[in-house]
Amino acid sequence: MKTPVVTQKRILRDVIISIFIYALPVVLMLLSFKISGQRPWKDKPNSTTIQK
Amino acid sequence: MLVHIETIFRNLNGWGLPVIMLLIGVIEFAYGLYENHWTKNEKVLDIVCFVVPRIVVRPFVAYVGLLLFPRLLPEAKNIFAWVPFWWGFAIIAVADDLTQYWYHRLHHQLPWLWRFHRTHHSAPYMGMAMASRQNIIYTIFFSQIYLTTTLVYLGLGYPVLFVTGVKALITTGAHSSIKWDKPFYTIKWLKPIGWVMERLISTPATHHAHHADTSDDGVGYYKGNFGNMFFIWDLIFGTGIITRQYPSGYGIKHYKQEEWYAQFLWPIFKSKKEGSELSANGPMVGDALPEKVPAVVAGS
Prior knowledge:
- The structure holds 2 protein chains of 2 kinds.
- Chain A is mainly α.
- Chain A has one helix at residues 5-36.
- Chain A is rod-shaped and about 55 Å long.
- The model of chain A has no long low-confidence stretch (mean pLDDT 87).
- Chain B has a domain at 2-204.
- Helices cover 58% and strands 0% of the residues of chain B.
- Chain B is globular and about 55 Å long.
- The model of chain B has no long low-confidence stretch (mean pLDDT 90).
- Chain B: It is a multi-pass membrane protein.
């Protein structure tokens, strides 16, 4: 049994859209650093704890 | 306050979630929500699927990950530990759940993958009993396990703790036979929250539709509603349907009550039931029909 061609095309289209969705939070984070001038990679690690 | 939240999530990811599931399961059972569908064969399958991944598969993946990564990528350990918490949370929430959306969707849309996911859909009921019910191969290759293990090694372990906790609560709630989302569709002042909620995350209404045994009633939609934590993927890709109703029946029409070991271990063990998808010469997909074009229908 084969996957219908219409389904194959939808999967391909949606995979391409997904690549942009995966990248979106990373791009927005880098954009926020550019706007705010932050350079957290030069400071000590901070994702291992919440600011208390 | 944040320390307490951290403690809650640490416990949730350890013993907390299984205890919550057991408690909800007892309530569901006490209220008769499994009706007379929970036969001995279903009970054994549900319990084996609940226990084995927790005591064998997940510890094994974590152990192998901890063993392999330092050898393969010694320089990469904690390389992204500088990522601020909330950005890490957003990156992992998207990466984890979108990957699971794809893993799940492909098991429905590629016929050769269907039988690895069929076990999750064969239950003729919803609830905690079937929430963990999966074929062992589906569990072993559960793609986002590897993704999150990698991200933990790269230094994003702390956000992972919170994402997996929130996700577990949402997916558990979506599988529950307790229709906790109903007030959000019926009580006037809760409706705006319900409108946002049913589009953002999986709810009993949208996820029960995915487990329906038919789509003929306009409520069931087992060829869509693939989202696990987030429902927005189904909206973006046009694979979702929102009706704010619950299907009348669950499971698969061509279910033959296959032996629990065949459902859990196919293709290592096969079913003796004639004509079963899990039997030696069974069909790849038992109810193969022409695909309908999915459409998103907003709730009233």
